[in-house]
Amino acid sequence: MDFGIRVGAVIERDGALLLVRHQKPDREPYWVLPGGRLEPGERIPECARREILEETGLEAEFLGVLYISEFLREGRHTVDVTVRMSAGGGEARLGEDPEVAPGAEPTLRELRWVPADELGEIELLPPWIRERLVEDSTRGWPPGEVYLGG
Fold this sequence. Notes:
By secondary structure, the protein is of the alpha+beta class. The protein has helices spanning 44-56, 129-138; strands at residues 2-13, 16-22, 30-32, 35-37, 60-73, 76-87, 108-115. The mean pLDDT is 89. Its cofactor is Mg(2+).
């Protein structure tokens, strides 16, 4: 079974969240929070900082864990840790996924700051996160239930 921990980062600027659009072979395009797989020996804040830098070029600081959820399907178990980060100044730029082989088609296709109230207009994964992000952004990211199941 493929097992991994994915760290996704909520980065908010002026009421909009930073999202990354992926396009993989034989799959429809989809949007996610910037992030990726936690490497062995790496701490969650370090993973979030590294992934944000790789995908967006932004330096970011860890503010805390927002949600933990799980994805279980045949042959795959992923624990999703969603964190909140603050990004310093500067403009986000589309980076790259270092796991993609040199010369292969890039999987990262677009970066976009999306106002929270417009999240319903895009294919955001995982599916549960859209409503939670809209709700929590309007309430100022209140602390609360962290484990959201699967």
